Each structure stands twice: as structure tokens, then as C-alpha cells.
Amino acid sequence: MSLHSLIAALPKAELHVHIEGTLEPELMFEIAQRNGVEIPYRNVEEIRAAYEFHNLQSFLDIYYAGAAVLLHEQDFFDLTYAYLLRCKADNVVHTEIFFDPQTHTARGVAFETVIGGMLRACEAARKEWGISSLLIMCFLRHLSEESAFETLEQALPFKENIIGVGLDSSEVGHPPSKFERVFARAREAGFLTVAHAGEEGPPQYVREALDLLEVARIDHGVRSEEDEELMERLVDLQMPLTVCPLSNLKLKVVGQLAQHNLRRMLKRGVLVTVNSDDPAYFGGYVNHNFTELADALDLTAGEIRTLCKNSFAASFLSDEEKERWCSRIDKIV
Ligand code: HPA
Ligand code: ZN
User: What does this protein do (predicted)?
Assistant: First the structure.
């Protein structure tokens, strides 16, 4: 079996995907028209042409503007259902989806509109294709602690439908310590925690995420490699890093995929996984991230298998489900 066929054949979990980042230009255009929302593009080609980024912030500006077309429960359903259809195509059998309520509540969209549409799509994908999903609510770190506390309060009635909380948006200047108290309250309420750290921010932010936010995973974390002691700690803890190769390339965290440190970290024993982050903006879903990375870094079939097993090991599935998927991977030859 070729490496690309192996990638397609292996079941995977996706652990780092922002639902707002799965809004394809075609759907953005369609929803903008039906909702009568003005967007600064005349057609789908113009939307695609705007997707040239030089860092995280230049992406976020365009990404938040695109999300403004989402108003109704049906919009969030359509968005999530379209993503889950891509999961089916890529053999992603389990996904843990980030959503950013503040991006929507700030525009007057109710929290329950957002989560209601998402949950309905997740339920449909479970019934129709057997894909399991969990939701992780992210706080926008460029906003205040107070706004994060308010968002946490809004989430409490939906606690049973939200497995954990995360932290995303503009990293530099907004360290994890800014949200120490919010995360403490979230953990008290029973939420698991994750955080974006070490994407553009320094290794110190990864340390803060571990020490102050008590995260179960680090999202991105690629700059951890600059701190040898931190690397040892990540290996000792078997702390998962949810790495997003095409995102790192498009946001210029790395100059070229061939320079990506994922393989080095894997060899060093870090529990790294491969994810798409914002696939509609960065040029590909999970399998495309795998194939591009495999070609650029000359990954072996064994490494591909390990990465797929890692995706389950690092997930919030039960030990039984993790075992079941990992033995399924072993049976595919
Ligand atoms: N980093 C921070 N915030 C984000 C990202 C990211 O890669 N994608 C969507 N929001
Ligand atoms: Zn992300």
C-alpha cells in the first residue's frame, strides 16, 4: 500500500479544529446571501484570493470577518455538518471540535443558537456515519478575563454537551496566566482544559498552560522545542501536542514544511498528533495535512501509524474506545 493510501485507510481522531475555521468560501457566500449579510467579496474566487497570511493576526482578522455571516441555528448546523462530511471522507472517526462563543455572542447571536446547531449536526453524523464528536469551548484570549467568566457562566446549562474549555486567538501578549482564575473555575465545574500555547508565543506560555491552567493537552506547542527542560517534561508527562502542519506553514510559524519539527519531536518521544486547525483557510483537512507532511519529512509507514494511534491516545475517549481504535489500526496492513 502506498503511504497516501495508508493515510486514507487508517482511522483517525482530530483534536484541533475550529468549527469557524471550516467555513468554506462556497458556504460563506451562500449563507451571506441567504442572511443578507454584506461581505467584502463579490464571489468565491475573491474570498479565496484574500487568504494570504503573514502571521496569526492577519489570519484572525479575516477569519472573524468571515464568521460574521453565521446568524441562525441552521447556519451552525450547515457549517458543522459540512465539516463532519469531510471527516467521513478522511476516515476521521472521532473529532473534538473547538468553538468560539464570543465571536458570535458579541454580534448578538445567542449561545444556544451556536451550540444547538452544532449538537444537531454532531448527532446526525453519529447516527448516519458512526462518527463521534465532543465539543470544546474556547475563550478568546485577546478579550478580558471578565468576558471569559461571562462566557463560562453561559456554558453551564450546556455542561453535559461540552467536554472542556480551551484558549485561542492572538497569543503574544495574552499569556495563559491571564486566564488562571477562569480555568480554575472551569475545572471546579468539571470541564477538562486545553490551551493554545507555543504557536507564536514562547515556551514560557506552554509552561504556564501546564502549571497554571492544568491542561490535558497543548494545542500547537511547536515552540516548546526551544526549551530543552520543557521538552523533557512533555516527554515524561506524555503531554499531547495537537500539531497543525499546514496551519504552521500558512501562518509562517515555519518557512517550509520540510523544516517542520514534528518528526524530530516524534522521534524524541513527544506525543504529537496531526490536525487541520482551520482547514477552509489553510488549504486542507486532516488527510491533506498528513500527506503533505509525510512527503515533506519523508515519514515512514510506522510513523504514520504512530501518529494515528497518538490521535486516539490523546483524545478524551474512554480507555476502551482508545484500545479498540488502536487495535483496529494494527489490523490494517
Ligand atoms: N491560533 C490561535 N487562535 C486560533 C487559531 C490558531 O491557530 N485558529 C483559530 N483561532
Ligand atoms: Zn487552533
Answer: Catalyzes the hydrolytic deamination of adenine to hypoxanthine. Plays an important role in the purine salvage pathway and in nitrogen catabolism.
* Tens of pLDDT, residues 249-263: 999 999 999 999 999
Please answer whether residues 194 and 163 qualify as being in contact, where contact means their C-beta atoms are separated by less than 8 angstroms: no
Comparing CA positions, the residue from 233, 316, 318, 301 lying closest to residue 270 is 233
What is the fold of 3-331?
A: TIM Barrel (3.20.20)
Return the residue matching grid coordinates 445567542. 110
Catalytic one of 171, 199, 208, 292 = 199
Binding-site residue numbers for Zn(2+) are: 16, 18, 196, 277
Task: Give pLDDT tens digits for 145-173.
Answer: 999 999 999 999 999 999 999 999 999 99
For ligand 2, the distance from its centroid to the CA atom of residue 242, given in whole angstroms, is 9
pTM for this model (two decimals): 0.98
| Ligand 1: nearest atom to the Cα of 168 | 3
CA of 128 to the centre of ligand 1 (A): 30
CA 176, 177, 183: angle at the middle one, nearest 5?
A: 75
Residue 23 Cβ contacting ligand 1 at under 6 Å: no
SS3 category, 217:
strand
The residues spanned by each domain of the chain are 3-331
